[in-house]
Write a sequence for this structure.
């Protein structure tokens, strides 16, 4: 096993693996994402065009088994930046950590921790951002597809130094595995200070 970090053209080589893993991992709880290659192509085109985007990739031999993305929040669209702008926060102060997708059999081996370490290092080296931010989908405790014994990742994220901002939310719609229509989902943000500044 190894984890490497890529930017620019070297990163773009691994975008098909990112799409494949997104469609596999996000199909499960809690995202329930019924993805397609067309949707993925549209989503990743904007990511690939960002000059300061970065991608951590976990390999088992030559096979990509996990990916984790990041880019400056200011380079994201209004659906993500809007909640920050509404609070009067400077988008330049935040670096956005996108998806982390890792096949189930490779979890619990420290790869998720390494994903965070590499993205934070990239944010510090490539920007003046003061904070890292990511968002996670919110699901009711009684959701019909919630697996028995499902454990949220809150404790893992707190151990990485992140703080939950449950009122700082964005909304995205996607087709889910439990129906034919696109469903509007709420995602709440988590923030971490990268350079010691107090959280806003």
């Amino acid at each position: 096993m190894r984890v490497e970090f890529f930017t620019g053209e070297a990163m773009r080589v691994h975008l098909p693996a990112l799409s494949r893993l997104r469609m596999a991992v996000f199909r499960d709880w809690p995202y329930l994402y019924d993805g397609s290659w067309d949707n993925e192509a549209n989503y990743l085109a904007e990511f690939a065009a960002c000059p300061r985007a970065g991608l951590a990739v976990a390999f088992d031999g030559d096979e990509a088994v996990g990916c984790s993305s990041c880019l400056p929040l200011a380079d994201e669209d209004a659906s993500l930046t809007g909640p920050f702008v509404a609070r009067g926060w400077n988008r330049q102060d935040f670096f956005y950590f996108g998806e982390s997708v890792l096949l189930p059999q490779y979890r619990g081996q420290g790869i998720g921790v390494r994903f965070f370490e590499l993205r934070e290092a990239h944010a510090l080296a490539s920007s003046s951002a003061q904070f890292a931010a990511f968002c996670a989908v919110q699901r009711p405790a009684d959701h019909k597809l919630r697996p028995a014994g499902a454990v949220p990742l809150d404790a893992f994220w707190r151990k990485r130094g992140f703080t939950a901002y449950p009122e700082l939310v964005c909304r995205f719609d996607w087709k889910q595995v439990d129906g034919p229509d696109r469903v509007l989902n709420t995602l709440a943000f988590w923030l971490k200070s990268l350079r010691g500044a107090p959280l806003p």
User: Anything to note?
Assistant: The chain has a mean pLDDT of 96. Helices lie at 8-12, 15-25, 37-49, 78-86, 111-126, 154-159. Strands lie at 2-7, 54-60, 63-72, 94-102, 131-137, 163-175, 182-193. The chain is about 30% helix and 30% strand.
